[in-house]
Amino acid sequence: xxxxxxxxxxxxxxxxxxxxxxxxxxxxxxxxxxxxxxxxxxxxxxxxxxxxxxxxxxxxxxxxxxxxxxxxxxxxxxxxxxxxxxxxxxxxxxxxxxxxxxxxxxxxxxxxxxxxxxxxxxxxxxxxxxxxxxxxxxxxxxxxxxxxxxxxxxxxxxxxxxxxxxxxxxxxxxxxxxxxxxxxxxxxxxxxxxxxxxxxxxxxxxxxxxxxxxxxxxxxxxxxxxxxxxxxxxxxxxxxxxxxxxxxxxxxxxxxxxxxxxxxxxxxxxxx
Length: 272
Hints:
Blueprint (H helix, E strand, L loop, with lengths): L2 H4 L6 H10 L3 E5 L3 H10 L3 E4 L3 H4 L11 H14 L4 E5 L9 H15 L3 E3 L7 H9 L4 E6 L5 H4 L9 H17 L3 E5 L3 H10 L3 E5 L7 E4 L1 H4 L17 H17 L11
Parallel strand pairs: 1-2, 1-8, 2-3, 3-4, 4-5, 5-6, 6-7, 7-8
Helix pairs in contact: 3-5, 5-6, 6-7, 9-10
């Protein structure tokens, strides 16, 4: 029996590594607020990712770059308060770890102290290895992120598939092994060929979480607004919608409006 159905104890790094060893897939969704995270946690989700994608989903920005450390703390603190079971990972936002190791450790400690999350996630390979090691040395669990790294969107020039060419694929595998050997408990692989993700998954001790990386990774993550059908115009190949919350919420709003306008809400039983 799986953790999703039988074990409601708090999931830890040790749990995630055990799941990989036993072949149990890891289910992860994003969340950015207490109410949503409570629903996901009570549903039994293995992990919640407080992504810098909150810049898009919550703030309406075109990319992830504008979100700040304090804004990530605000979202992550709310999610961590909700989670009695799920493992909570928080992104370190753009600019919080690229300037210097010292700055990165300072921001990492601040996020951990002020949120109560279980781990942090950073984008990049060997270029940030010394920074990753410094954060790990501070006693903070770290997850890597390779492939399409949205904080580098202006460098890439778009959100297309990464590591199609052999040289980039070789570098990604090398980066993954280096991050794993440094002590990262896992790596998110975004928008890379499935066979490359399979090779990475088989080559490292830590877990792999895929988004647009095929089915061979140890787990999968989706942005909840996409997975649950709140967004309508975002239709990448890798996305499957598991609910139609846009319709559900639209119907609910329209029912509320109708009840208000015809004075059927509140009724006598709903009045003091």
